[in-house]
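tool=predict chain=A
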Amino acid sequence: MSRIGKLPISLPNTIEVTVAANNVVTVKGPKGSLSTPVDKDIIVKQQDNQLVVERPTEQKRHKAMHGLYRSLINNMVIGVSEGYKEQLELVGVGYKATMQGGILELSLGYSHNIFLAMPSEVTATAVTEKGKSPVITLESNDKQLLGQVAAKIRSLRKVEPYKGKGIRFVGEVIRRKAGKTASK
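tool=predict ok
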């Protein structure tokens, strides 16, 4: 049995879950509503204040999907109740970030500034404190979309291993390399 798949998902009182006839699970909560289609073979049942995901057989395909759909539904439940938050730090001289409307403007040492339109589901704030690196905070109820947006922003200027300049997640540890050494 899948260790993750067999765990029940506990539902807070503020959350409402519906499973449609075509096996689409919809989760509604204080932070919004999310839905995902579940494979027709996987069974999603609501028992008391818990959601249980079951598989019909021990086929390799069913075993693979059992834990996957349990994790996806659990991420939706956490997203609509608490939400997800990701913080990115810009390390480098002259690196700036400003948020205007729904557009994130980044100055990352290229000849032109980079403008990124944020999806409506993701809220972004850019904070620059004196003496510290600028920090971009992304918040959303959709974990997958939030990770995708954060990865896109990070890919604009990846952290280089010599000086550590670039965009990194707050708390991320970068393996630093030694530079050139002069021989005598």
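The longest helix spans residues 60-81. The longest strand covers residues 84-91.
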